[in-house]
Design a protein that fits this description.
- It is a single chain.
- Helix 11 packs across helix 12 and helix 13 packs parallel to helix 14.
- The chain contains 20 helices and 17 strands.
- The radius of gyration is 42 Å and the shape is elongated.
- It is 56% helix and 18% strand.
- Strands 8-9-11-12-13-14-15-16 form an eight-stranded mixed barrel, surrounded by five helices. Strands 2-3-1-6-7 form a five-stranded mixed beta sheet, with helices on both faces. A two-stranded antiparallel ribbon has the order 4-5.
- This is EAL domain-containing protein.
Length: 536
């Protein structure tokens, strides 16, 4: 039998042309374009199988098969290319996601500033470099004053926008190589390299404070916050990050205790004072709850008749081991620890109860903290205490300082008007020592103006002080507001005030603040004179 001989490529093409019914040049063109098909045929080394396959199928079927073989490599190539692009995109997306996770772990999501964790690493790096180079740096701790009242008054959305504005302002006033970080809440930190000593640190801190004192305009709402700054310098105050942080925080606590809105540099003496404040903070709340803080009463005098017309109520704390704690100390602790509302409510309630049965013309005047004019619960608290004690609203006078009016003016106006609506009288305390006094007199419905004691004490030695007191008395008279002079210590001051036409006064000349029992004794001493006056 004749042995089958595998034809060469030329013979194969001729046979394929006959079977497919196509010219040889078309098949050559097709096989050239679909070279992969020929490679497959060679790999299989099975021309006989292909020949049998071609015999068993119609030409149109072979056309479809050849087309499929032709398109298969192109489609595979396109798929491979697209899949490769997809893999690249997925890999890039994964890389970006990983970078974002790393960024969120080291940056504040709201402001984009480095967070506490990244600040710690960066500060350690800066301190290490500075030790090697013999350079100094300062760490500035920043706390926004009264920020929590923004959230209470305007909501967290406005609060978040203000935090973003704060971050932008800080970034705008520091130098390119300085670090601005957000520690949390409304607390920020700046780390600045120093090449010119402490004076450079003071200038940087002053720029920061000035930037944060300006009002924030959010959706048409003007909000004034202010800030307190504490500064510590390495290597003068500390050589490690933890100690530097702690001492900057200590300086910040001093800045807040001294009235906020100021800058304090760390001093060694501050450590002992801060420890004492921490102790007082821990003991203050139990003392308030136990009633250890009590109201004292200082008489208010009609300067013309020398009669008592009421009492100013002042908080006093007799500590079991520390003795009499100065009010300026425990009140600032109460403000910083969020206890000022509870302290004021306790003092007001006890004062109203003590004065309830005194003669109906006697008033009591109670001081409000500046923080409380941003407290939306203040009005309800006052109304509740008046209802509970039965004390007449017309006999209650609430004193606010001008510094209380530089925050949210709109909210302060709402609170003052609401208190006036229930019959409570409002006095402006320490007039002339705050901000924009005349603007406040026009914007708030005050019943009384209290001339600050510093002007009264200096009337005898400073002509300008006497002119200021005279001007305030005239201003109050023209605006229909009663004027009271504080700090009267000697008879000469009282005589000058009477000559100037000041109707009311208070001070050590007429008596210091005394407990409720001693105040009641003063009131009892008034009764015979009142009875005599009524009988005549």
């Amino acid at each position: 039998m004749h042995k089958f001989r595998r034809p060469d490529l030329h013979s194969r093409l001729s046979i394929w042309c006959r079977h497919l019914g196509r010219p040889r040049k078309d098949l050559l063109l097709l096989t050239a374009s679909g070279f992969a098909t020929y490679i497959v045929a060679l790999l299989f080394d099975s021309y006989e199988v292909i020949h049998q396959f071609a015999e068993a199928h119609e030409a149109w079927q072979l056309d479809e098969i050849m087309t499929a073989f032709f398109l298969l490599p192109i489609g595979t190539s396109i798929y491979a290319f697209r899949r490769n692009q997809d893999l690249k995109r997925e890999k890039e997306a994964a890389r970006k996601a990983e970078l974002e996770v790393q960024r969120l772990a080291t940056h504040d999501a709201l402001t984009g500033l480095p967070n506490r964790r990244k600040l710690a690493r960066d500060l350690e790096h800066c301190l290490s470099e500075n030790r090697d180079l013999g350079q100094a740096l300062c760490l500035i701790q920043i706390d926004m004053d009264h920020f929590k009242h923004v959230n209470e008054r305007h909501g967290h959305m406005i609060g978040d926008q203000i935090l973003q504005f704060i971050a932008m302002r800080l970034a705008g006033v520091v130098r390119r190589d300085d670090i601005v970080a957000k520690r949390g809440g409304d607390e920020f930190t700046v780390v600045a390299q120093l090449s010119q000593g402490l004076g450079e640190a003071a200038r940087i801190a002053a720029r920061i404070l000035d930037a944060l004192q300006s009002e924030f305009d959010v959706n048409g709402v003007s909000i004034h916050l202010g800030a307190s700054l504490g500064v510590a310098v390495a290597p003068v105050d500390a050589t490690d990050a933890a100690t530097l942080h702690r001492r900057a925080d200590t300086a910040l606590q001093w800045a807040k205790a001294e009235g906020r809105g100021r800058i304090r540099f760390f001093e060694p003496k501050m450590d002992a004072s801060v420890q004492e404040r921490i102790r007082l903070r821990d003991e203050l709340q139990p003392a308030i709850q136990a009633g250890h803080l009590e109201p004292y009463f200082q008489p208010l005098i009609n300067l013309e008749t020398q009669e008592i017309i009421g009492f100013e109520v002042l908080a006093r704390w007799q500590h079991a081991t520390l003795g009499q704690v100065p009010p300026c100390t425990f009140i600032s602790v109460a403000e910083d620890s969020g206890l000022i509302g509870a302290l004021t409510r306790g003092i007001l309630k006890r004062a109203c109860s003590s004065a309830l049965h005194w003669p109906a013309h006697l008033v009591i005047a109670v001081n409000l903290s500046p923080l409380q004019l941003s407290d939306p619960t203040l009005v309800d608290s006052v109304i509740s205490i008046l209802a509970e004690t039965g004390f007449p609203p017309r006999r209650l006078e609430l004193e606010i300082t001008e510094s209380a009016l530089v925050g949210d003016v709109s909210m302060a106006q709402d609170i003052v008007r609401a208190l006036k609506a229930v019959g409570v009288r409002i006095a402006l305390d320490d007039f002339g020592t705050g901000y924009s006094s005349l603007v406040h007199l026009r914007s708030f419905p005050f019943d009384k103006i209290k001339v600050d004691a510093s002007f009264v004490r200096s009337m005898a030695t400073e002509v300008d002080s006497r002119k200021i007191v005279s001007a305030v008395i005239g201003l109050g008279r023209n605006l229909g507001m009663t004027v009271l002079a504080e700090g009267i210590e000697v008879q000469e001051q009282a005589e000058v005030l009477r000559e100037l036409g000041c109707p009311l006064g208070q001070g050590w000349l007429y008596g210091k603040a005394v407990p409720a029992s001693a105040a009641a004794a003063m009131v009892d001493a008034l009764l015979p004179a009142m009875r005599t006056s009524l009988s005549q």
